[in-house]
Amino acid sequence: MTTRAGFIALIGEPNAGKSTLTNRMVGAKVSIVTHKVQTTRARIRGVAIEGDSQLVFVDTPGLFKPRRRLDRAMVAAAWGGAADADVVVLLVEAHRGVTEGVERILDALGDIAKGRTIALAINKIDRIKTEALLALSEDLNSRFAFARTFMISAEKGHGVDDLRAWLAQEVPEGPWLYPEDQIADLPLRMIAAEMTREKLTLRLHQELPYQLTVETESWEERKDGSARIEQVIYVARDGHKGIVLGRKGETIKAVSKAAREELEEFLGRRVHLFLQVKVRENWQEEAARYSEMGLDFKDGNG
User: Fold this and answer.
1) In the CATH hierarchy, which fold is given to the domain comprising 188-300?
2) What is the mean pLDDT of residues 223-246?
3) Which of 37, 61, 140, 259 could form a disulfide with 196, with the two C-beta atoms 3.0–4.6 Å apart?
4) The whole model's pTM is what?
5) Superfamily of the domain at 4-170
6) DSSP of 65-106
């Protein structure tokens, strides 16, 4: 039996559907999905098996114009993920078409195209008419020579099987890179922190989008098979602490309950989750916070 294995980088603008597609391909929730842009901070890898091929998905942060150190580190991680991959898939939102951000990505694609296959996936195809979809595909292919173009809906699953089958043939021959039962290479502590951050993002809406981060401080395996997990939510200002706690602690309680339930489902056992909120004014300038997120602090320079 000839096995194949390789890394596939999903790149695109924030909110293009990279996390949704990773989760759909892998069949498990390894990447947080919210209605907010820029929620994927680290290069989360999900592992999918297709026939004799193992597909390792690098779900990169969205590519956008960076303004702050954290932004720059995230963009560097995204391009780094693409440069390390065997196959790169550019996701473009059908209804948004060729935006300024997509044009910037297309301009930069030539630098990483050497030695790797680059495909185009037009996502959210249910949002526009067929004629407009074909015109968009033609336009994008005239700007870059994509190996293949796929029309998909990551959310509904349309076209995803075709993309996965094609990727299985494109990755190089070689032994599998991960044990068969492993779906993500992130440490459990980081996955747990991401789950809590997702609940905070959903709950707080526009109030504190990127002004907070979550870290798992301790993880204790109990004799009864349960896990005791302590997490710290870092915010930049005193006022933010009140928003996260909510009136009479209602917000933090709701977040804690939702995160605990999802963790229990993910781990298949009981979880005791304890959340604390701490103010660290300059957490976005601290190297330790970046390594917790799987980002390189030095990439934020410039």
Assistant:
1) GMP Synthetase; Chain A, domain 3 (3.30.300)
2) 87
3) 259
4) 0.59
5) P-loop containing nucleotide triphosphate hydrolases (3.40.50.300)
6) ---SHHHHHHHHHHHHHHHT-SEEEEEEETTT-S-HHHHHHH
